[in-house]
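Hey L., structure's done. Input below.
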Amino acid sequence: MRPHLPAQALACLLVLSACSDRLSNPTGPGDILTHEQGAPAPSDRYEALAVGDLIACGITTEEDLNCWSRGSEPERVGSGQDFFTIDAIFAHVCGLEDDGEAWCLGENSGGQLGDGTTTDRDALTRVAGDHEFIDIAAGDRFTCALDEEGDAWCWGRGALVVGDEGQTSEPERITEGRSFTSIEAGSSHVCALEGDETWCWGENGFGQLGDGTTDGSSDPVLVTGGHAFASIGAGGSYTCGLEDDGDAFCWGHNELTLELGIDENGTDFVTEPTAVVGDHEFDSISTGYIHACALEEDDAFCWGEGDTGALGNGGDAATGRPTEVSGGHDFAVIEAGRHSTCAIDEDGAVWCWGLIESDGDPLVPTRLDGGPGPGDPPSAEAVTDLDVVRRTSSTVRLGWTQVDDGLGDPAWYRVKYAETPLEDWKEATIGCRRTIRGNDIGDEIRCTVSGLDPDTRYDFQLMSFRVEDGRWVGAVFSNVATGETRARGGSGAS
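Output:
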């Protein structure tokens, strides 16, 4: 039986802001795109994920942030931010730009967005203060981040987590003189790595702080056992750590939901790191609310509560032993959320399963639109020889070789261009206008982009695709060609 969704979870559905056409931000050669004319198209290449409750977000290879909810397609969020990390666990999402500036969106009843208010936001809002953070972690109704010195700052509502008052709508320094290098947040506790040591603070009713007690603490306490964890993850009321050799350890709540992966007996809770069962050498680990997942080479394993399909093994039963995710996928990134899981395959496409998935079987991975999966139609061939063959003061003539549309016919094309350095792409509507198609595969194609400014450097890129029932299918992007228009009055040939 699927759980009842609280009002705060439903608020997640409101955070997807309107976005610009995905085709205004093409990516690199061979990138894949499925785009319905007139509708937003999802970026197809991702490198990082965050999964909350009915919402997930991903950072593309272009450092854009796309988000989606149950039954929706990815939509661009923000306007020009370049993100390198994001996090979510419940009803808000936070991310960091390359310059360390923090942005959040979503539910804000506890001030967890950090913008000085408790107003929910359906668009990105900048976290208050002139901070340069290196890592960020979202809890239930709070957020924490690390500054460049390695100290922790937190904001929102969280007893024992967010300062003496337990609530603030702007970042408040929690530690001084620490050298934390990464931070993770659970439902009501936080853990951070410092050298070979793991430190945690917050609520501890199930031993999630890992210090051998069930006493909560507003000050960081050392996790026992002498483990030198390379990475950690904080779940609902539990924590996991991964050693350099791939051994995983978990501690905290375990009763009925089995999220520790330590047995099938439903041990109520443990207060010290305990080995995850099975002879695994994991490369990464991710903790959801009541389930966890890990990658071993490119194989995915999950354990814990499975009643929403979050384990991806085709069943809905809880298991205290790592169980391989169905489908034989080669995953490079995996992220466990509240009642769902998403992963990125080696081609950069996203697959999700659990409560967030509505289009396919929620018990097994289903691919988001944006890249061919097993059994899917092939993509078109990418143009790799796009070149500038002639220039005037107001035009640039492009040339390339006709490629296959993926089904043996000549591909169709659209031309995009922008001034260098690359910023906002424009669609060529004069000269190389609308859709272009050559006669035979291997033909040389030429078209002229007109209406350009004189003495200006431009970047050009093609999207090759085929048309099926009025939709652009299997689209991929070409290499980028660069050319500079001549000064007014200059000669034509380049």
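The CA atoms of residues 180 and 195 lie 8 Å apart. The chain has a mean pLDDT of 84.

-- N.
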